[in-house]
Amino acid sequence: MRKEIIISLLVLGAMASKSQTLVIDGEIRPRTEYRDGYKAPISTTNDPGIFTSQRTRLGITFTSGLLTTQITLQDSRIFGQQASTSSAATTGLFEAWANMLLMPGGSLIIGRQAIKYDDNRIFSASAWSNTGSTHDLVLFKYGINDFKADLGLAYNNNSETSVETFYIPGSKYRSMGYLWLSTATYNGFTLTGIVVAEGLQDTLGLGGIDKYKMIDMNQAFTYGGNLKYENADFPLSGLATAYFQSGKNYSNKTLEGKLLALKLNYNITNHTSVGLGTDYLSGDKNGIADGIQSNFRKLYGTDHAFNGFIDYWNTPLTQGLLDYYGSVIGKIGKNLTLEGDYHIFNTEFSGKNAKHIVFDKNLGSEFDFLITYKLNSWTMVQGGYCRYFLNNNTLIAKDLVTVANTYPTLRTPQWAYVMFTIKPTFLNTILSEK
After folding, report:
1. What pTM, to 2 d.p., does this model score?
2. Looking at the domain assignment, is residue 393 inside a domain?
3. Ranges under pLDDT 70 in the chain
4. How far apart are CA 189 and CA 204, in angstroms?
5. 13, 194, 200, 244: least buried by Cβ within 10 Å?
6. Is 204 exposed, middle or buried (0-12, 13-18, 19+ CB in 10 A)?
């Protein structure tokens, strides 16, 4: 034990004496979209929408021995959204955190930070979104050999306060804590587990009342994990996912949701692979009138990466979602990747729309095609085309049918985009040698 302590102190001392470095980098990401029924079908009396959005980030990272800090500024806009003569400020703070090494393998990160784990279903930086996703929290990280553990804690307020008040959500939660564990098990297998506890304000009880007590928050819990298999010597890889929920939601309903997923990939050659998978998000058979929310309550993961890129069901129906899909991925040379996906969508239960018109489980299908080209070390070009194949159930579930057996005339749902992701490093320098 004494020897281990001495070695640890020597390691910390060596790291503390390292040089100071400064890195300034950026991201410029314009994306042009053609929306002809994106998220929901549109009438033949409407024309498709075309627009260009841009996300711009400027990051500053400073490292000095045991300390790393990062500040990232972000601007998100639509081309033409702001007049060329406008002087209004639009830049905001995306990240601002400090990472302090406490011991070999253990560090503490404090501040606004993007967090992501495993398959990005529970926590994600939401890279597709123009604004991304970050959290204000304290995060303790520990890792040794093949074992990793993260403990995150957050508590939100609207402003400085001397007494507790009702939180007007900037985030979905008032308080949040999570524990994530990961370990490599045997011959290519990696097992991870996560428990998330959230304090959610009761929107039916104390909403609008000035005084507020922490004890009145509803407690929501999500727990589960991933089992991943990947071995460079074997062509088959896979990922199994399971998450479950308990506690209470915002309106004091009991949570009983679950999410199960399985994805398998097989490398036919070094340049071609095929995949099969399914996602199951539980649903409510009788709505939530019985006081139980059985449909899975999504947390802070990415939506766009799952269940089709045209985003028809990224917010699942109350009746749940079953997604059966297959994919083919091909690589041409080192820089070009082609991908084709096909999804078949169903609900767990049949249901009714807002006009009480019944729809069956089959929700239609979707085809996605993506092309990605790495232009150079700091520029990526990506394009995509997606086509949704409607049926009557789709229209009813999307509340586009207001009279039974009377269906509107709609355009063929399709969506396409072209996106440039440019990430230059403006400065990477050693400031001083200690």
Report:
1. 0.91
2. yes
3. 1-18, 85-89, 170, 203-216, 287-289, 433-434
4. 45
5. 13
6. exposed
Q: Give backbone dihedrals phi and psi of 14, rounded to 5 degrees, phi first.
A: -65, -40
- Give me 418's structure tokens: 């072209």
User: What does the block give as tokens for 5?
Assistant: 């302590």
State the Cα–Cα distance between residues 205 and 373, nearest whole angstrom: 52
The reported pLDDT for the residue numbered 162 is 83
Which range of residues forms the domain containing residue 167?
19-81+91-432
What's the Cα-to-Cα distance from 252 to each of 18, 28, 171, 182, rounded to whole Å? 53, 43, 18, 32
In a domain, 123, yes or no: yes
| 414 inside domain | yes
Question: Could you give the 3-state DSSP secondary structure of residue 311?
Answer: coil
Q: Is the torsion defined by CA of 171, 173, 176, 180 positive or negative? A: negative
pLDDT single digits (tens) 132-191: 999 999 999 999 999 999 999 999 988 888 877 777 776 789 999 999 999 998 889 999
**Number of structural domains, the chain?**
1
Q: Evaluate whether residue 8 is within a structural domain.
A: no
Q: What is the CATH number of the domain that holds 377?
A: 2.40.160.100
